[in-house]
Design a protein that fits this description.
Blueprint lengths: L1 E7 L10 H7 L4 E7 L10 E6 L1 H10 L4 E6 L11 E8 L2 E3 L2 E5 L4 H4 L2 H7 L5 H6 L6 E7 L2 E13 L19 E7 L6 H16 L5 E2 L3 E6 L1 E13 L2 E22 L3
Parallel strand pairs: 1-2, 1-3, 3-4, 4-14
Antiparallel strand pairs: 5-6, 5-14, 7-9, 7-13, 8-9, 8-13, 9-10, 10-12, 11-12, 13-14
Protein name: DAGKc domain-containing protein
Organism: Candidatus Fimimonas merdipullorum
Pfam family, one: DAGK_cat
């Protein structure tokens, strides 16, 4: 068996990727180690070890279909690090992502923090970005989750397969029902100081107090098997990476043919 080890040197804790320790955890006949900053490929290898953060895992899920995949969490947040194995992943129009795809308020912070700041300050590197990107958005969207339709204007739309995002353990429904969830917070209008103050209260309620699955007047958190989202083309944060999506977006969850083994650093 031949194995390729990918180390993303732009991940926040890439120095934790100890190649000798990885080889002890993943026995193989031969190894190839590649240190990357951007695009990479691993065709022709029986197994792949992806070392990096959430974005590295997301890229590996898409590039290593049909191959045995191992994941060494050495990013800044590592939302999937607590799992021993990952046996399913989210999909948006056929593209895998590990836990989050979101647009609107705050979502830019996932990809805006500089690599140097993440290495130095770890999770604290996102705090200045949170203040910078605290904005009111007005996103027109039509959504259909398992046959239930919603239409309106939103400041945040998040598809999440996790109990937490940016270390906020807010999704109180996930432990009992571990599937994909739609979080949508209604727009309060144009971006101004008055509306930012108004927006603070639902955000505090959701992220600091926690939320159970429900549909409220100003926001909703609902589990789903199938979701269709129609909106304008705009930037999304997918597992900490920027992507521009728009039009008709189909979301779902799919079992992986080869479950991902999560290694210990």
């Amino acid at each position: 068996m031949n194995c390729k080890i990918i180390v993303n040197v732009e991940s926040g804790n890439c120095k934790k990727a100890n190649v000798d320790k990885i080889k002890r955890q993943v026995p193989a006949d031969s190894y190839e180690v590649q240190y990357v900053k951007g695009d990479w490929q691993a065709e022709g290898f029986d197994c792949v070890v992806a070392c990096g953060g959430d974005g590295t895992l997301s890229a590996a899920l898409n590039r290593c279909r049909g191959q045995k995949l191992f994941y060494l969490p050495c990013g800044t947040l590592n939302e999937c690090a607590s799992q021993k194995a990952i046996d399913s992943a989210c999909l948006v129009n056929g593209r895998y992502f590990s836990y989050v795809c979101a647009t609107g308020s705050f979502t830019e912070i996932g990809y805006a923090a500089k690599t140097e700041d993440k290495r130095r300050w770890k999770g604290l590197a996102y705090l200045p970005q949170a203040a910078k990107y605290y904005r009111c958005h007005d996103i027109p969207a039509a959504m259909c989750a398992d046959g239930k339709s919603f239409c309106g204007r939103y400041t945040l739309i998040m598809i999440l397969k996790s109990r937490r995002c940016f270390r906020f353990n807010f999704n109180k429904g996930y432990d009992k029902l571990p599937k994909s969830y739609l979080l949508a917070v209604k727009s309060v209008g144009k971006d101004c100081l008055k509306n930012r103050i108004k927006l603070f209260f639902p955000f505090f309620r959701i992220f600091f107090c926690g939320a159970k699955p429900a549909v409220h007047k100003n926001w909703m958190l609902i589990p789903f098997d199938s979701l269709t989202l129609e909106t304008e083309k705009r930037p999304f944060c997918i597992d900490g990476e920027r992507a521009v999506l728009g039009g008709k977006l189909n979301f779902g969850t799919q079992p992986l043919d080869n479950p991902v083994t999560v290694l210990k650093t």
